[in-house]
Amino acid sequence: MGLLSDPNRRQALIKLLTRLNAPICGMPVDWLVKTMQARGLEVFTQSFSRTLPFPDENTERYVVKGTNVYGILRAPRAPRTEALVLSAPCTPGDNNNQAVGLLLGLAHYFRNQVYWAKDIIFLVNEHDLIGMQAWLEGYHHTNVTGMDWSPLQGRGGSIQAALSLELSSDVVTSLDIVLEGLNGQLPNLDLANLFYAFCQKIGVLCTIQGKLQRNDWDSASGYNHAVQTMMLMVMKQASGRPWGDHGLFLRYHIEAATVKGVNSFRHYKTDATTIGRLLEGMYRKLNNLLERLHQSYFFYLLPSLSHFVSIGYYMPAFGLLAVILLLRALDLWVQLSAQPSRTEDGVAGTEQSNPGVLSVLTPLVISHLTGAALYMLPVRFQEVAVEHFPVSETEAVVLTAIAVYTAGLALPHNTHRYPDMGWRVLKLVALLYLAVLLGCTAVINFSLGFILALTLVPAAAYVTPHVPKALSAFFLVALSPACTLLFSVFFFQELQEMPVSFQDGWLLYLSVIAQGMLDHYLYGSLVFPLVALLVYPCWLLFWNILFWK
Amino acid sequence: MAAPLTLLMIVAVTVRAVLFRSSLAELISERVEVVSPITAWKRVIEGLALLDLGVSPYSGDVFHETPLIIYLFHFLVDYAEITFMLADVVTAAALYAAAKDYNKQVFRKQKFALEADRYPPDCLELIRTPLEMHYVPLKVAMFYLLNPFTILSCVAKSTCGLNNMVISLFILCTVKGNVLLSAIFLCLATYQSVYPLTLCAPAMLYLMQRQYIPVNLRRVSFWWFVVQYLFMYLGSLFVLVCLSFFLLGSWDYMPSVYGFILSVPDLTPNIGLFWYFFAEMFEHFRLFFLCVFQINVFFYTIPLSIKLKEHPVFLIFMQLAVISIFKSYPTVGDVALYMAFLPLWSHLHRFLRNIFLVSCVLLACSALFPVLWHLWIYAGSANSNFYYAITLLFNVAQILLVSDYFYAFLRREHHLTYGLYLKKKDGSEATLVLK
Fold first, then answer.
1. Could you list the residue ranges that cross the membrane (chain A) (predicted)?
2. Of A19, A53, A270, B144, which is most buried with the most CB atoms under 10 A?
3. Is A12 domain-assigned?
4. Residue A211 in 3-state DSSP?
5. Rounded Cα gap, residues A456 and A535, in angstroms
6. How far B380 CA sits from the closest chain A CA (Å)?
7. Which among A249, A258, A309 is positioned nearest to A282, based on CA atoms?
8. Inter-chain CB proximity B368 and A326 less than 8 Å
């Protein structure tokens, strides 16, 4: 006995799916409200609007308006203190019709069961992440991002877990689970294990990062495959953007994942009934939870769905990189404190080392002002840029950012009164600053911290005014955050087995920068302010040291 | 020297004003590292609201500051930002003047000792010159005004700034030799938070030194001075307590203020050591551990006073540090006050052994406090152990800093008495070992 074993219900689901196959412009709010009410749910809508800081290249407009529709299935005999969420983003066109149909079919089935102890909220959100952000902010009465939304009329209890569905075709050969959320936050590993266990029980093929599991762990190609899967996860986590609608739930301490249906033209196909049974099973498991999922790891990397790398394994790698910086700083400290005893004149000795701290202030202030310019100028001056150059707003923003970044390289270096000792003090301060910065980043978003550490630590430790200038300058620029992002874009495409040409890669790079800035303004992603306000000024300090006269 | 000081004050006031007007002010006033249940501005507003309604401000266990504070802000609530900025400026000016006076006395004492030929011949490089001492008062003011901890404390409108002002005025009056004002300001500081009580000992030692009264327990003049000082101190305390009673008409401020500080009922996380311990303690042992923790603050007074009876200003520094580390609800404003003293001991730099490690750890901990708070409270991936680990590390680094300076100070005194390059009896070089 399971979902849709009843032929009537199967008919109803097929009717729904056929109906949704027709192209729709915007979201069919009234139809959804009527259908959900017919299923016996308490239906409410929420309208929202957001003024984008610059028009997204996908939407090409400044203001995004939409409506979310959600229906609450009240638990028959339980106090209304906890809730679960099943959501399907509804984008214009027929991108996600099957998911909405499945959601409505499941709602109909769930309504007739008596074992629900938590309320189930069926949410259809418009404009993907923007709609989801508006709904979550309305539900939790916060306003993090300055969005305009109407208050929610109906509410369940505190949300324990959520799943988001993305099904693009009615024939599915495998299910992909997406875990990476905003700022690299991951749901509890128990949720991924739950999904994998159910897939195996029901016999559905499941993948992670779009790659299948392999059984040959000992062979080189199997190991290679696992490393590629893990590197994909690292790249996705480092970008700090939510890779599915679930990504925004994690900030509110709600474990969530996105389930994507993939049609890869395999021989063995799965139908909507099986997926429905899988989701029903998962929801029954989540229904039985007595407390929030917290027993398993929150920090992990997945080379496959049956293996994971915990924080205890990967953090020491980062720790060793940070130790390089600290040892170099210690070495500089010893050099600096050995200096005054060599000078004969006590007064000149103190003069050498004492104003060192103040002389560091000028490069620090200049590099942070440049970082602040990189953060604020692109969005503020997009109108001015559009007037003077024949580019669209998005391009103007991105190109201004790149221009400010490159202009920072040509900054005047301050007058150096202490040619020998001054750069040592500056390097000491810069090394400690970088170590603390990378440490804090790695604790919050390990992948971002590790990638930045891998590229910045060798250059930072190596650079002095006495190394060959042209070669070191080239390497320092090649390892700077912007170029790291460029290489990562190409690397990411390679890992996904969709390598791009240089032109396409460059355009993709520009769109990645635009998306990163938009993520910061829309959802509060920390990657853009971190890189612009903290990492880039730190890198500029090392550039300053390289060109110390 | 007035011009650099004025410039410094203008820069400091500008930075604070800019931060007051930005959106960061609200964020900072919520941080648990910057405000505690005693010093939070939100609670002062709550107390004022209760007072306006005619109810005692101490009802409801929200407000834990003294009645004088609430009456001060009754008149100044619209000018709160200016009040706190002014408090910081007055503190810096008081520390500047105190440092200048102290330097003058140190230099005079040194001159007498040189003329009396009391220093061994090879330790001339340890003698302080007027050139190096010239910029020390300005550095003291700068260390206080431009310390990020002080700026955060001011922008959050934490009443710790007012406490720091009173303590720095007490230090100024003590250094200038004014017994009555010193007792009155110390009494104000004790009245607000109990712990400055331990500063009685260094104050008395300094004033006795200044009036050439020998510190000898068998002399009548010693005890007579102690009696005088304690009479002034306890008298002003009595006056203040009675004044508070008459201001509010009841004694319920005593358990709310002093009972709260001493019995630590509120276990909100902060940068101190109490909250985690008492969160997991059985009720049966609570009183015992409470006594142990509170005695820990007062315990170091007598031994330190005996060891440092010739150097009462260093004793004030050590006492302030001990109070900031071991008090029941410390905040970064308390840490900023004793850090302002560090330029006074810049001549000890060559004897400090752990300064690099301490600076790195303090920097890293200050950066990790908000990160681990976010991971614990918002992301839910960490728990209180992580935050307490950073708290412990921060306090261990502070203790290491203070003990390092203590070691360096004693070592310099030792060298000034026995010479810089020590030789054993057969003439070979000796090494100094701290046992």
1. 313-334, 355-376, 396-413, 425-453, 473-493, 505-523, 529-548
2. B144
3. no
4. strand
5. 9
6. 6
7. A258
8. no
Residue A143 makes CB contacts below 8 A (sequence gap 6+) with A137
Cβ neighbours for A188, distance < 8 A, ≥ 6 positions apart: A255, A293, A294, A295, A296, A297, A298
Domain co-membership, A197 together with A242: yes
**Of A289, A305, A321, the domain-final residue:** A305
Instruction: Report how far residue B209's alpha carbon sits from residue B203's, in angstroms, rounded to the nearest whole number.
Output: 10
Same domain, A376 and A508: yes
pTM: 0.89
Whether ipTM > 0.85 holds is: yes
Best of B135, B353, B356 to substitute, by most chain A Cβ atoms within 10 angstroms, is B356
CATH of the domain at A61: 3.40.630.10
For chain B, the distance separating the N- and C-terminal CA atoms, rounded to the nearest angstrom, is 43
What is the pairing mode between strands A63-73 and A42-51? antiparallel
Considering only CB atoms, B371 lies closest to which of A333, A435, A443, namely: A443
Alpha carbon B172 to its chain centroid, in Å, reads 14
Interface contact A329-B360, CB threshold 8 A: yes
Question: Does the residue A141 lie in any domain?
Answer: yes
- At which residue do the structure tokens 């996105």 appear? A258
Same domain, A54 and A203: yes
- Could you say which of B367, B378, B380 has the minimum Cβ distance to residue A436? B367
- Answer yes or no: is A474 within a domain: yes
Residues A387 and A271 in one domain: no
Which range of residues forms the domain containing residue A543?
312-336+357-547
The phi, psi pair for A261, rounded to 5°, reads: -90, 135
Q: Any CB–CB contact under 8 A between B30 and chain A?
A: no
- Which tokens go with A440? 């804090």
Say if residues B309 and B339 touch (Cβ distance below 8 Å): no
Q: What is the token pair recorded at A185? A: 């936050």
Q: Are residues A374 and A510 in the same domain?
A: yes
Residue A178 maps to a domain: yes
User: Number of folded domains in chain A?
Assistant: 2
Instruction: Render each residue's pLDDT in chain A as its tens digit; 549 residues.
Output: 455 556 666 666 666 665 555 444 467 888 889 999 998 899 999 999 988 888 776 666 778 888 999 999 999 888 889 999 999 988 766 667 788 888 999 999 999 888 999 999 999 998 888 999 999 999 999 887 788 899 999 888 899 999 999 887 778 888 999 999 999 999 999 999 999 999 999 988 889 988 888 877 788 888 999 999 999 999 999 999 999 899 999 989 899 999 998 888 778 888 888 888 999 999 999 999 988 888 888 999 999 888 899 999 999 999 999 999 999 999 999 988 887 644 433 343 344 444 456 778 888 888 999 999 999 988 888 878 878 888 778 888 888 899 899 888 887 665 555 566 778 888 999 999 999 999 999 999 999 999 999 999 999 998 888 888 889 989 999 999 999 999 999 999 998 888 888 999 999 999 999 999 999 998 989 999 999 999 999 999 999 888 887
Chain A residues near any Cβ of chain B (below 8 Å): 185, 250-251, 253, 292, 294, 298-299, 326, 329-330, 333, 346-347, 350, 432, 435-437, 439-440, 443-444
Specify whether A179 is located in the same domain as A316: no
Q: Which residue has the tokens 């090649």?
A: A478
Instruction: Clarify whether residues A257 and A401 are in a common domain.
Output: no
The β-bridge relationship of strands A255-262 and A158-167 is: parallel
What distance in Å separates the CA atoms of residue B256 and residue A21, rounded to the nearest whole number? 68
Of A326, A347, A440, the CB nearest to B131: A347
Query: Do A401 and A255 share a structural domain?
Result: no
